[in-house]
Every structure is written in structure tokens, then in C-alpha cells.
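To start, one record:
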Amino acid sequence: MKSWEALKEATDRVGVKAVAARLKLSTALVYKWCQEPSSEDPGSSGARNPLDRLQTVVEATGDPRLVNWLCNASDGFFVPNPQVDPGAQEEQLLSTTQRLVQDFGELLSDISRGIEDDGLITSDEAEIIRQSWERLKSQAECFVVACELGLYCQRRPT
């Protein structure tokens, strides 16, 4: 989905006037953001939409914390897509599932350590649990992408 399409769908739900009023901008500018840019010159309108601008900022800085901040502001978390090399030995089914189970075990261990002394989870312990959860989500996403790419649907020669 293109950025302008995402903006159009989101804006259509609440109305261009409501979005423009909330941003203290003209409805014409918000309408412009929701239109497909010219194929000859995508930057010709002079009104690049905020999603394209944010993408440029992330690319310029190379810092995924910007995306993570936006996800947190939307009550979510950012999990980057894994880089899966179809020919890599480490992406074989057994080793990948073992890493997934290991990461899950580490998450459970972190939770257990957090509650074993006083039955409570402190903010520091919650941060450790969050990091374990993020590693598990990334590993699970890597596994699912490898499955979708068909990396595990062929038998290895014996």
C-alpha cells in the first residue's frame, strides 16, 4: 500500500475536515496528501505527505527508534522484518525452531526471576521482560517469514 493510499483510507474514516482541523491545516493540503502523486514527478506538488517525510527521516537517520516511538504512541511495538537468506545454513528448520524455543524459555525465566523474590514485577524487571519478549517476537517473525518463503518445504538430500 502506498503512503497516500494509507492516508486516504485513514482520513476517509474520520473525514478530511476533522483531520485538517486537528492539525490546524487547510483541507486542501490534507486532500493533496491523499492523492496519488504524479507519476512523472512524485515530488512536484510540493506537499509531500507526512508518512513519506517520516520515511525519509528514518532513512536519513537509520534509527528505528523513530518508528518504535510512533508505534509506542499508537499503543504498539515495532518488530522489524527479519533479513532471511534462503541459502543460509542457519535458517534450517531444526536450528530455527531451537532458537525460537530457547528465546521463549528465556522469556519465561525472566518472568520467573522477576516474581521469585517478592511476587511482584518491578519496572526494571518489566524492562528485562520487554527485551526478552522483543527478541522472541523477532525470532518468531523470522521463523514465519522463512516458512512463507518455503525454506522448510523441501527435504534435504541425505
In short: The chain has a mean pLDDT of 86. Residues 55 and 143 are 26 Å apart (CA to CA). The first helix runs from residue 3 to 14.
